Amino acid sequence: MIVEHLSLKDFRNYAEAELALSPGANVLVGRNGQGKTNLAEAIAYLATLGSHRVSADAPLVREGCDAAFVRARLAHGERRVTLELQVNRQGSNRARIGGAPVRTAELPRYAQVVLFAPEDLQIVRGDPSSRRRFADQLLVQRTPRMSAVLADYDRTLRQRTALLKSARARGLKDAQLPTLDVWDDKLVALGSEIIDARIRLAQDLARPVADAYAAIAGADHRPELEWALSVSGADPEDEDSAPGEAAPTGATAELFRAALRSRRAAELDRGLTLVGPHRDDLILRVRGLPVKGYASHGESWSVALALRLASAELLRAESPGGDPVLILDDVFAELDADRRARLAGVVSGYEQVIVTAAVAGDVPDPLRAGAIRIEAGRVLGALSEHPIDAPAHDEAGAGPAGGDG
User: Fold this and answer.
1) pLDDT digit string, tens, across residues 49-65
2) SMART domains recorded for this chain (predicted)?
3) Residue 33 annotated as binding?
4) I need a labelling partner for 201 at 20 to 30 A (CA). Which of 29, 237, 303, 374 fits?
């Protein structure tokens, strides 16, 4: 897959922007705070339906505006398709593919992007929510319908937790809450699907992560991935609980339901849902030890890089549309010379790589193509000879994309 052209309106610090991109390496150069990462963020959002920097959409909309617009023309071999996204400060976002309205969850079917940024160090060093977020965004890219499953689980979780909080405030007992069983059924159905998908993901990532780690670190430190599951007794979100790593011994739904029954009294006492994928953690190890708390700085960077490169390899192997687009956002400045060279060697074979850097000299030679300068929310450089509004051979014979973006 190739991103041929990106258009932004009222996105972050861009009133308007037009960015033409080519196959191979593309380098966006500019001082910090000028908007390089905003361009990378816009492209990645189309693939993951989320930002790598913020959890809410409102910060993506330029100050004083109600909505931001992202439009990208993608090439899948000889096919062209235009994706459009309207990011609303409030309310649901809207999307179009080839000018036709679609659910936003359809966008990842066409846009496959893997972004690595300095924030990714939090995947290995941060709290469990960082690792869950990494896994869930990759799940959505591999299986776009998981976006709806995750959203439905979050809604069910909020409603069930609200009932528990209300019961706690009113002093109600289990027998006085017949509707709690209904919410349990919904939580188990959705949560079991998420747990099973995450376990399969960790299994699928195991070999690519080991290969990528060895390529980046130049050593085999036996990186491992395993989920610590609250349905099996672990609770990484509870500091007073031992972070066990028990794997399920039976059907996930049965384990989930049994765990809810066993924690019902504690949930009513605390007004919280204490069991489910929202409390699980992806345990990462090197040399047999947890990365968090034991790995060196260089090892932590290597694990974070390996997770993203392994993600790209999975998508590359499974996608009929070619390689995912690789985005390296301000990464090379954080790495030593050896890891810079190794990383450049690994990613240079992808169909398209987008690199952002404050200093072009930080980018290794294999990726140092014609640079595009970014300054104060403006793209300074040659634009495409074929603006994105021009008629394109969009999928299904669609004409030019409409909308306000």
Assistant:
1) 888 888 889 999 999 99
2) AAA
3) yes
4) 237
